[in-house]
From TrEMBL:
One Pfam family per UniProt: AIM24
GO biological process, alphabetically ordered: inner mitochondrial membrane organization
One term under GO cellular component: mitochondrial inner membrane
Species in which this protein is naturally found: Hortaea werneckii
SUPFAM superfamilies: TRAP-like
Keywords: Mitochondrion, Transit peptide
Protein name: Altered inheritance of mitochondria protein 24, mitochondrial
Length: 210
């Protein structure tokens, strides 16, 4: 009896040892160890924050008590177009700047009496230009186009300066108004406009039907 009991105990111990060994192998089989990646892809939120924090390529600011002087600060290789003879100051590296005359669709603007001779200013380094209208008793205003709303320049001589690689200026004929406003400029895209007018310039917003 004692011998049978000992054999039973030994068999039980062997079964337990086999079960423990099987569990140990099973646990080792399903364990995975992976290294942490050295770099991660940026999230969309991080990209948007970076784009928001980035400085703009150009900035227009009206100066003077009579709003008769424009300060245009531009990044490197950004083109600035201004009326011929309106550049009065330059802050930057003159040796890196280039000024050329630009003809803006003379065959379409000429018959509408819209000015088409402009000065194109660019530089390989950031710069600031000071502009002043040639006509006396005129004021300046800056219009920022973000691509969602287009603007119509009703007066022929309203456009003083502009910048923006995607900004499009198209002359058009509008006979619905008086002959003084037949020659207009339709502006679309993204960029900055500097407009001039005699006296003070006011903004009036009207609702539909008013």
């Amino acid at each position: 009896m004692r011998h049978q009991a000992l054999q039973h105990v030994c068999l039980t111990c062997r079964h337990q040892a086999r079960a423990a060994s099987t569990l140990s192998r099973a646990s080792k089989r399903y364990v995975q160890i992976s290294a942490t990646p050295t770099s991660t892809e940026p999230t969309q939120r991080g990209i948007e924050a970076t784009q928001t924090a980035a400085p703009p390529d150009a900035r227009f600011e009206v100066l003077g008590t009579h709003s008769s002087l424009l300060s245009a600060s531009l990044a490197a290789s950004q083109n600035l177009y201004t009326r011929k003879g309106t550049l009065v100051g330059f802050n930057g590296s003159p040796e890196n700047a280039l000024s050329t005359l630009s003809l803006l669709e003379p065959f379409r603007r000429g018959p509408l009496a819209i000015p088409f001779l402009y000065q194109r200013l660019t530089s390989t380094t950031p710069y600031t230009a000071l502009l002043a209208p040639k006509s006396p008793n005129t004021s300046l205003v800056v219009v920022h186009l973000d691509g969602r709303v287009d603007w119509i320049l009703a007066q022929r001589n309203a456009l003083q300066a502009w910048t923006g690689p995607s900004l499009a200026l198209r002359p058009q004929l509008n006979t619905a108004l008086s002959p003084a406003y037949w020659g207009q400029t339709h502006t679309t895209g993204r960029g900055l406009l500097a407009l001039t007018g005699r006296g003070l310039i006011h903004q009036i917003s009207l609702k539909q039907g008013e």
